[in-house]
């Protein structure tokens, strides 16, 4: 994935942030600026790690990128569309179609089976269940190696299995960008490696862009690019030499 | 996942199934409330319609009588005790002026079904040593039966037809020991008397009526009550008995006669009925409020418990409106399911009541006819109450900030 980005400024970029600030508790004595003018862009197919000390603003940044929250200042483009000008409904749609989430704690819906959890984003978008979305969910579960567990209730799965279901669910709408906030932070090494392998495979097979928050240097080293966020500033952003494409 | 259900319903059902204990409890509560409402409503409606039916059995919805004569003080009297002279005229029978014309006029009103002339007054029925005070009612049988269903109440014999026919009630028959084929003598205050043949017995299911009323031909009654060619009243049947008072007022203003509706005559009963209906409405209101509070509180707790799941749903592209509907559906479904069980429960209460509320002879105390609309209304009402109760929690769920919800 070392292609130079095609011409055309916005559309070519999966994500672009221009001078993004975020403060919490605005207007209260506890007002706190967490992000101090972030500039960042991700090209299609990039597999980037976001690292940095706890409390540095990684989750906050991911929420902004994921359109779950709005920046206090600055501009944010997802697949070339500026988020700041969109209303809540359009923002929800943009999020549903273009962004997949994987959170640290495997947030599956416990009332649904594995395959139903994977179907949910498509179901919410289309309104009614159908065979096509069931088939796609089954295919994605197969990709993460969970076909034998497809009809198990979410809570009956192990942590690693649940997180793989969450990965499959994040891919349900075939998003341009998958955001993972410490997706392996809660797993043992073996399960963590399994989940990480799945992310990497999807990235390589379908060219989906990934931004992964991780505390694990071992995993960060397996990414193409490492972005370090300290106290709300990007202090380093470099390609990962060890993981140069093609020589893995 | 049922392919016919939309996303919102699927999520709502799964959420409810997750909280089975809470859902069951609240559905049971709604069922109990709806059961009580159905039972009470059917009971009160049955009671009222029975009283109404029994009353209208022997009573015309509207009775037209001559206008009341205003009593005036007599002038020129030497006595200073004016007040003594201000007395209503004696209860002497008066006829309705030009009653045939009035009859045609009233019959033309669209709300009127039938009009019949009646000559009615006090008298005595004698047979051997027995002697009973009666109300003599002279009727024109052909038109009378269109107003009062007398022929359906005849349990032996037939309606009066000839000049010497009389029909009496079962009680009077017992008191006088006179059955069909026997003779009895009718006298009135004017001194007139007739010997008549009992041709029929009636039973209105009302002891006082069965004891006092006797029916004879119009002519004979005119002779007995000294009202040659006249009638003392006209009885009117209308399409809607509950409109009787308005129609009576129309008749009154058009004819200048006095028209009394059964609603005014039975004012006390109608007041009691209104009070009954009001208390029933109050009960419905409070049961509905209780159910609404129950559903709302369960859903408020559920929104808090599921805030992470709601956040996840939002993160995966579920809109605020969809989240709102997921919770509205839960409220509506709890109301609906509760009301369906409630209808069954109400039906059960009524069955028990029917088995218990019996006369000494085993016949039902009164008939309760449960209209299907009552169940439909209860179900629809409970569903609406459930949806309304869900509005506050549903809005809270929809407004949840997904970033905060996921952070926990
Ligand atoms: N909703 C919030 N309200 C107030 N402060 C917040 C909120 N979310 C995060 N913070 C604060 O912002 C800072 C960055 O947090 P976070 O983005 O979670 O960092 P990281 O994910 O890198 O650990 C922390 O100081 C945290 O306390
Ligand atoms: Mg974090």
What does it look like?
The complex is a heterodimer of chains A (248) and B (408). Chain A has helices at 58-65, 88-98, 114-126, 131-143, 159-170, 189-206, 217-220; strands spanning 15-24, 32-42, 47-51, 73-78, 81-82, 99-102, 177-181, 209-213, 225-230, 233-239. By secondary structure, chain A is α/β, with parallel strands linked by helices. In chain A, the strands form two sheets. Chain A has a six-stranded mixed β-sheet with strand order 6-7-8-3-9-10. Chain B is 56% helix and 17% strand. Chain B has helices spanning 7-18, 20-58, 82-85, 99-107, 141-147, 150-153, 170-176, 207-212, 218-224, 244-255, 262-265, 267-305, 307-315, 320-356, 372-399, 402-407, and strands spanning 62-65, 112-127, 130-139, 154-157, 165-169, 183-187, 193-202, 213-217, 233-238, 258-261. In chain B, helix 12 (267-305) packs parallel to helix 15. The two termini of chain B are 29 Å apart. The interface between A and B is medium-sized, with 36 and 31 residues. Residues 58-59, 181 of chain A line the site of magnesium ion (MG).
What layout of secondary structure does this protein have?
The complex is a heterodimer of chains A (248) and B (408).
Chain A (H helix, E strand, L loop, with lengths): L14 E10 L7 E11 L4 E5 L6 H8 L7 E6 L2 E2 L5 H11 E4 L11 H13 L4 H13 L15 H12 L6 E5 L7 H18 L2 E5 L3 H4 L4 E6 L2 E7 L9
Helix pairs in contact in A: 3-4, 3-5, 4-5, 5-6
Chain B lengths: L6 H12 L1 H39 L3 E4 L16 H4 L13 H9 L4 E16 L2 E10 L1 H7 L2 H4 E4 L7 E5 H7 L6 E5 L5 E10 L4 H6 E5 H7 L8 E6 L5 H12 L2 E4 H4 L1 H39 L1 H9 L4 H37 L15 H28 L2 H6 L1
Parallel strand pairs in B: 3-8, 5-7
Antiparallel strand pairs in B: 1-9, 1-10, 2-3, 2-6, 2-9, 4-7, 5-8, 6-7
Adenosine-5'-diphosphate binds next to strand 2 and helix 1 of chain A.
